[in-house]
Write a structure and sequence with these properties.
Blueprint lengths: L1 H12 L1 H37 L5 E6 L7 H12 L5 E5 L2 E7 L2 E8 L1 H6 L4 E4 L10 E5 L11 E3 L5 E8 L4 E3 L10 H4 E3 L3 E5 L5 H4 L3 E2 L2 E6 L5 H14 E5 H19 L6
Parallel strand pairs: 4-11, 6-8
Antiparallel strand pairs: 1-13, 1-14, 2-13, 3-4, 3-12, 5-8, 6-11, 7-8, 9-10
Helix pairs in contact: 2-8
Length: 270
């Protein structure tokens, strides 16, 4: 009883310092949670990018004219690249919008090569494989409610898909829809919010013709390409848009991580 009286007396005498300390610690906790979330996003994206074996690649942002359709423009670039001996592959994503239970759904379409290079983090089920069916899908985001692996769901458009995998709520996935002068993995990957991923390599051509491509792409060149062959290809790409080397993206990303920490935690906590 005497101890409780002492504690109450201490609180009454120090109520304002206690309030200030409590508020300060609440703010610090909020900052730490925010920092952790951002760092988790960036480092997860960086890990996927590093593990994708893209050392012989550039991130390409097409320059578009006013009124130009970027899907058509990107396909022209891809076709032209086939004339260069250094060229190996053109990786981008395609997308279209749909609805499920009145919620918007971002449908993304990945090629076989992108699927193999960038398997995503799942909480249940499995990532795409050679045995996956034509309309097998991986989903991510909060709108799917009680949907489970093995369920068949029908979207507003009438498309019925079989769910083979479900992503972690904090998982990231390649979107390639951001560009700029300083590219980091944040431009290549986004949080997987309310998305449904399909393997475009298995879908009918008429179905894919209705979709839009990502603004940016990852272009890989052959490992045995000579410096001269690479130079010719890069020279062509420089006339079509902006390229950023793989190593530069990783350097920018590491700087981004350091800046986030210094920006969110400008002074030591203790």
């Amino acid at each position: 009883m005497k101890t409780l009286i002492i504690i109450k007396s201490f609180i009454r005498k120090n109520i304002f310092p206690i309030i200030i300390i409590t508020l300060t610690m609440t703010v610090i906790l909020f900052i730490l949670v925010t920092v952790f979330g951002k760092l988790q996003y960036i480092t997860q994206a960086r890990d996927i990018y590093e593990q994708a074996d893209l050392k012989n690649s550039v991130y390409f942002e097409k320059s578009f004219n006013i009124g130009e359709d970027f899907t058509t423009a990107n396909k022209k670039v891809e076709q032209s690249l086939k004339n260069y001996s250094a060229f190996e592959s053109f990786l981008n994503t395609e997308h279209s919008l749909d609805e499920y239970s009145s919620f918007p759904v971002n449908k993304r379409y990945y090629s076989n090569e992108l699927i193999i290079k960038m398997p995503l983090r799942l909480i249940s089920g499995e990532w795409f494989s050679d045995s996956s069916g034509q309309f097998d899908a991986v989903i991510g985001g909060v709108i799917w409610g009680g949907v489970k692996v093995g369920d068949k769901i029908t979207l507003e458009s009438g498309l019925t898909v079989n769910i083979i995998g479900i992503m972690d709520s904090s998982a990231v996935s390649p979107s390639m829809n951001s560009g700029g002068s300083t590219i980091t993995v944040r431009d290549i990957f986004k949080l997987s919010e309310n998305i449904l991923i399909l393997n475009k390599s298995k879908l009918p051509a008429e179905y894919m013709s209705k979709n839009s491509s990502s603004i940016c792409s990852i272009i890989t060149y052959k490992d045995n390409a000579t410096d001269s062959e690479k130079h010719k290809m890069m020279e062509y790409l420089s006339t079509e848009g902006i390229t950023t080397e793989y190593n530069v993206i990783l350097e920018n990303t590491n700087k981004d991580i350091k800046q986030e920490i210094s920006k969110m935690l400008p002074i030591p906590l203790f």
